[in-house]
Q: What sequence folds into this?
């Protein structure tokens, strides 16, 4: 059994997610580092959700909507981050949760 290219892409994204998550919470005096890794986490969440939703057949609309629903966590995290204007652990956790939701739902829904 050969590994599908989509599965290999998911492995790369999960590895990137782990590295991003470590640096999102790593204490550092430079706020720019937190900002960069926060937005990288948002981008990974969007990428995972996009791949998950578009990998499903069009007739499975309910599952496609469930896949897109994972971005709600990231959206709330972005709103919290923008409202506070600084590093916020709750926003970081929500973005991480969005990525985990997208990755987990890929394996559950497909």
A:
């Amino acid at each position: 059994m050969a590994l599908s290219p989509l599965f290999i892409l998911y492995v790369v994204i999960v590895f990137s997610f782990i590295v991003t998550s470590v640096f999102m919470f790593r204490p550092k005096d430079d706020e720019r580092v937190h900002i960069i890794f926060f937005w990288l986490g948002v981008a990974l969440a969007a990428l995972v959700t996009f791949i998950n939703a578009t990998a499903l057949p069009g007739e499975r609309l309910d599952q496609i909507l469930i896949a897109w629903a994972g971005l709600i966590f990231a959206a709330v995290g972005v709103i919290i981050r923008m409202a506070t204007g600084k590093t916020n652990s709750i926003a970081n956790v929500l973005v991480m949760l969005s990525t985990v939701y997208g990755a987990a739902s890929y394996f559950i829904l497909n």
